[in-house]
Predict the 3D structure of the following.
Amino acid sequence: MSEQQTSPVRQYDNGPRRVRVGTVVWGFILIAFAALYFSGAQLDLSNVGPGVILAWAVIVIGAIALTGAVVAATTRRR
């Protein structure tokens, strides 16, 4: 009888990979915090209310997400 030998090397599927939603969400959260920190360090935001800063942060993150979606939709292979 011959035994099947299993190789210790894993075989990987080189097919198309999907983006993980959790990774994208955490990426946006980290970018938002970094952008708020750097803008606060570079600009004098003492006269601006926190609501205005939050609104601008949401607008910028939304624009980044929309740009990413458009780029992904136009570069997707069919």
Summary: The helical segments are 21-42, 50-75. Residues 28 and 61 are 7 Å apart (CA to CA). The first helix runs from residue 21 to 42.
